[in-house]
Design brief:
The complex is a heterodimer.
Chain A: E1 2-8, E2 14-19, H1 23-32, E3 38-50, E4 56-75, E5 80-87, E6 99-103, E7 110-114, H2 119-128, E8 137-143, E9 146-152, E10 157-164, H3 176-196, E11 204-209, H4 213-227, H5 231-235, E12 240-244, H6 253-258, H7 260-266, H8 270-287, E13 292-294, H9 296-304, E14 308-314, H10 323-338, E15 342-346, H11 351-358, E16 362-366, H12 372-376, H13 381-400
Parallel strand pairs in A: 8-11, 11-12, 14-15
Antiparallel strand pairs in A: 1-2, 2-7, 3-4, 3-7, 4-5, 5-6, 8-9, 9-10, 13-16, 14-16
Helix pairs in contact in A: 1-2, 3-4
Chain B: H1 4-28, H2 37-54, H3 56-62, H4 90-100, E1 102-110, H5 116-126, H6 132-144, H7 160-165, E2 172-177, E3 181-187, H8 195-202, E4 207-213, H9 218-223, H10 228-238, E5 243-249, H11 258-274, E6 282-286, H12 304-307, H13 313-318, E7 332-340, E8 349-357, E9 359-361, E10 365-369, E11 373-382, E12 385-387, E13 389-391, E14 395-401, E15 413-415, E16 423-424, E17 426-433, E18 444-450, E19 453-466, E20 473-476, E21 486-493, E22 498-499, E23 511-516, E24 519-529
Parallel strand pairs in B: 1-3, 1-4, 4-5, 5-6
Antiparallel strand pairs in B: 2-3, 7-8, 7-15, 8-14, 9-13, 10-11, 10-15, 11-12, 11-14, 16-22, 17-21, 17-24, 18-19, 18-23, 19-20, 19-21, 23-24
The chains are: A alpha+beta, B alpha+beta.
Chain lengths: 403, 534
């Protein structure tokens, strides 16, 4: 994404003009836009006009509209962002206050007006426009009969294709069925690899599996490449990386991210950092439970006493339509920063973010133990459950995104 | 989803009350209070079962799964296509067969390279299940690739990959007979990466042989925290196996040393008893898979018999007691394998698995869940022999007609159309947490193993931790579960619903194993199913 223009007043109101270039940018925009914001972008609208004789004609017109945002929909698979709202600028064709839905397009400028640009939003803009942070990796996590072909970027993990093929097990005296099934499976993964991975863009291709599936798949891919004389694959052979993981399910990406050879390849990407932090949290919870807390209430209390060393929050919390909720979390983030703590905003499109989201969405590792936090609010526990419930609902929404 | 939480909440609390009651009940008749805290919990399942079998009336009345609650006249519809004269009275036939030779399923487990496949391959050869000619052929071929010691393992390791690498990757099924019993042998892979396959095999087993490598350093490696000896033993125990033989293998390499055998027996015995095995149902047998010593025959003059006066492996195996089968329950068979084409070269779809409950016969209609498609059993095999019927505990291969292969997946359960198994994506389970490195919190992503199926799931809520000693709730809504604790949790499947029953209704289909990052983090039983259907 490119930042074209930024103009923010002292009262934090103002606008930003951005130029989205790739799929991931849509995810950034999705995280930026909130209800009540104003969005100005070019869009297409069908205009119906009635002539003097009464015959009506309709015509599609490209025009620039400004809308007051009401709902935002995002499809991570296709990278489509649809923003619906009321038109707030008069134009030749469209009346004020009529509804319009803008399909945000790649490679076209748009301008976003906000009444308040808070730190999280501004950071998001900065993050999105930082080209040094881009690293796309394709990952195939598989086990016999199951493969997930994923694309991992800084902020997103997208399952491009999930392949599930039944493979007959070996039977006494006959392994032909098994071997045939396995061959079919490898072929499907190979086809998926060709279809979904853009070798010009990705920095590496990770094949991860338990057992020997990864080795066999790797051999299959290059046997096929030789047979079909696929130059693209042959040239990119050094980009392939074989990693061990415990299963072919998407969860295993977390293990893959922690593998040293992958870390080296990804050079400290956000995804790897998030996994490491979450891991540290769990270790702390095990070794010293008084230094690891989750749930807003506990974390906020720890923050009051300036104890937070690392704060982990998911971006889902900042997407909240309720301004008060958003502000609550922003204050938490600012508070932690002010007291010298580190803040990590997890992307809910990553596996680790998904996990944190289910863990109320906010967790903290403290610099010193606070054993009394838990005791203080025995009666508040019930309330917190409602929080958890709300969060798991939110998670369902994330599920609906097709993750 | 949006409307459900409140309802679920109500159900959660009621379910909790019920399970606690049960715990109290179970502990009253528990005679073994000395048991280690976490291990005792593994026992819980069996104890509950006792209650369940003792009071069958009570069970059906509190069954929380409406679909399968009452096993009333399940024979009406499924047999419609068989003329009455041709119907088999399975229960009578079963009684006849049991009085002749009971059928058991035996799984062979142990650390990687303990010699499981070699031991069992040699065992089958010694019993005459494998011909002299075949073994000679394997010996020649194995020698050719420089793995002559693997010849016997090739009886069970049949795929090219397994033979080249010299390790078992998937369950191999075979069968043999002893003087009083028929056995289905399931040879499990020992490597940690293939534990999902091992679980799929162990889920079908009634009894187990744990193979131990007795050579210096190897036993210790397998027994360590990273070895599979402990994990396998805990897994089979949690999957309901109560009787086990420990085959102390490769003792020939230790000059049949008695001190070594005693050392292993002592170390392992303590652990296994802690893990919930009864001492009376645990037997140690010194063997050599490579030379075949003490498998079936005792060689005169072998130094082993200077001190070992006990039984050979086959004699010991013969003494396994057949477990009680759930014959009167509605028919259930978890599919572990399926492929196109029937037995022989007939058309149709073949499915393999073990019958978990009830019975079936050729011509009967069965329904594949999930999906709900109905098929008719055309032919079937039990232990590789053509049969006209099969009952709980039998390991079957059957050809179905009228069923599309697309309707089957590795988690499919075949059942009687009169009482199909419930399908769910959210349920409450009572867990025993294994020796884990990081604690379990809500939102914890796991791989759920159920029979042959493994599916990603999440622990969405920690409902309560339970005190093993009293069965009381220690803490509601705990922040996390640490190792060794027992707790009730709510689990949600990530991708799709699966067929599942409560432990009360069906002990095999009511067990789940939870794994994460290549380690088993917990074993559990399903106490309540919260949502039905997809």
């Amino acid at each position: 994404m490119k930042l074209i223009k930024k103009s923010i007043e002292k009262d934090k109101s103002g606008y930003v003009t951005l130029y989205p270039e790739e799929l991931e940018d849509m995810w950034h925009v999705y995280n930026l836009i909130q209800t009540e914001d104003q969005l100005k972008a070019t869009t297409i609208r069908r205009i119906q006009s009635e002539s003097a004789t009464g015959s009506s004609s309709s015509q599609r017109v490209r025009l620039t509209l400004t809308i007051v945002v009401e709902t935002v929909d995002f499809d991570p698979q296709a990278g489509l962002l649809r923003i619906n709202g009321r038109v707030s600028s008069e134009s030749q064709y469209v009346k004020m206050n009529s509804y319009h839905t803008i399909d945000l397009e790649l490679n076209r400028n748009f301008t976003l007006f906000k009444n308040e640009w808070d730190t999280i939003a501004l950071e998001r803009v900065e993050d999105a426009c930082d080209i040094t942070k881009q690293a796309d990796v394709a990952a195939i996590v598989c086990q016999e009969g199951l493969a997930n072909v994923c694309l991992v970027t800084q902020h997103m993990t997208i399952v491009r294709q999930r392949i599930e093929t039944p493979i007959p097990r070996k039977r006494k005296g006959s392994v032909t069925n098994y071997e045939k099934g396995l061959g079919r499976f490898y072929d499907q993964v190979y086809q998926a690899l060709l279809r979904h991975v853009n070798f010009d863009v990705v920095k590496g291709i990770i094949i991860a599996s338990p057992g020997f599936v990864k080795d066999q798949l790797y051999h299959y891919i290059f046997d096929q490449a030789v047979k079909t004389d696929n130059k693209m694959l042959m040239e990119n052979r050094p980009k392939f990386l074989l990693v061990h993981c415990s299963s072919g399910h998407k969860h295993s990406l977390q293990e893959v991210m922690q593998d040293d050879s992958v870390k080296a390849k990804l050079a400290d990407t956000k995804a790897a950092r998030e996994v490491a932090a979450l891991d540290k949290f769990y270790v702390m919870l095990n070794n010293d439970p008084d230094r690891a807390f989750y749930g807003f209430k506990h974390v906020a209390k720890a923050n009051e006493r300036g104890a937070i060393g690392t704060l982990m929050v998911t971006d889902a919390l900042f997407r909240s339509a309720d301004i008060a909720t958003r502000r609550k979390y922003i204050e938490l983030v600012e508070g932690v920063r002010a007291s010298g703590g580190q803040v990590l905003v997890f992307s809910t499109l990553h596996v680790s973010g998904e996990q944190l989201n289910q863990l109320t969405g906010v967790a903290a590792i403290l610099t010193f133990p606070l054993p009394d936090i838990e005791e203080e609010d025995e009666e508040e526990v019930a309330e917190e459950n409602d929080d958890t419930q709300a969060n798991s609902d939110e998670m369902d929404v994330a599920d609906d995104l097709g993750l | 989803m949006s409307k459900q939480p409140s309802q679920q909440h109500a159900k959660v609390t009621s379910g909790q009350g019920k399970s606690t009651d049960e715990d109290v009940e179970f502990l009253e008749d528990d005679d073994d209070n000395q048991m280690d805290f976490d291990m005792a919990a593994l026992n819980l399942g069996e104890k509950k079962l006792k209650i369940a079998t003792a009071k069958p009336k009570k069970v059906s009345s509190i069954a929380s799964t409406p679909v399968s609650s009452q096993p009333s006249s399940p024979k009406v519809t499924p047999l419609a296509k068989i003329p009455p004269s041709k119907r088999v009275d399975v229960e009578a036939e079963y009684a006849k067969r049991t009085s002749d030779k009971a059928k058991l399923n035996m799984v062979v487990i142990g650390h990687v390279d303990a010699g499981k496949s070699t031991l069992m391959g040699h065992f089958l050869y010694a019993l005459g299940q494998v011909s002299e000619k075949t073994i000679r052929k394997y010996e020649r071929e194995a020698q050719k690739i420089g793995k002559s010691s693997f010849a016997y393992a090739w009886v069970l390791d049949e795929t090219g990959e397994e033979r080249i690498r010299g390790i078992t990757m998937d369950i191999a099924t075979n069968s043999f007979e002893t003087t009083s019993k028929q056995f289905t042998l399931l040879d499990a892979p020992g490597h940690r990466d293939f534990i999902p396959n091992m679980i799929s095999g162990a889920a079908q087993a009634d009894v187990a042989i744990l193979v131990i490598d007795a050579t210096t350093g190897e036993f210790e490696a397998g027994f360590d925290a990273n070895g599979q000896t402990k994990e396998h033993a805990l897994l089979v125990r949690s999957l309901g196996v109560q009787q086990m033989i420990v085959a102390v293998n490769k003792l020939d390499a230790m000059e049949w040393s008695k001190p070594r055998f005693d050392e292993i027996t002592a170390k392992l015995g303590t652990f296994l008893i802690q893990a919930g095995f009864r001492k009376s149902k645990l037997h140690f047998v010194p063997v050599s898979g490579l030379t075949g010593e003490n498998l079936v025959k005792k060689t005169e003059g072998c130094p082993l018999y200077d001190w070992y006066k006990g039984q050979t492996l086959v004699e010991r195996v013969d003494q396994f007691e057949p477990p009680v089968r759930l014959l009167d329950k509605p028919f259930r068979m978890a599919v572990s394998d399926f492929f196109k084409g029937g037995i022989g070269s007939s058309s149709g779809v073949s499915v393999a698995g073990r019958i978990d409950a009830g019975h079936v016969q050729v011509g009967e209609q069965v329904v594949a869940i999930p999906g709900g498609e109905i098929g008719v059993i055309k032919t079937m095999q039990v232990n590789d022999d053509t049969a006209t019927w099969g009952a709980a505990g039998d390991s079957c291969l059957m050809t179905l007609t009228g069923l599309d292969i697309m309707q089957l997946s590795s988690g499919t359960v075949l059942c009687t159309p009169a009482h199909p198994v419930p399908v769910t994506s959210t349920f409450i389970a009572q867990l025993v947490v294994f020796d884990i490195k990081v604690p379990i919190t809500s939102g914890f992503p796991i791989i759920l193993h159920h029979q042959s199926l493994n599916e990603p799931a999440s622990i969405v809520k920690l409902i309560a931790t339970i005190d093993k000693a009293t069965g009381e709730i220690i803490k509601k809504n705990p922040r996390h579960l640490s190792k060794g604790s027992t707790a009730t949790v709510r689990i949600k499947l990530d991708n799709r619903p699966i067929p599942l029953e409560t432990f009360k209704d069906n002990k095999d289909l009511g067990r789940v194993m939870l794994r994460k990052g290549g380690e088993t983090v917990a074993a559990g039983v399903v106490t309540q199913i919260l949502t039905f259907g997809s």
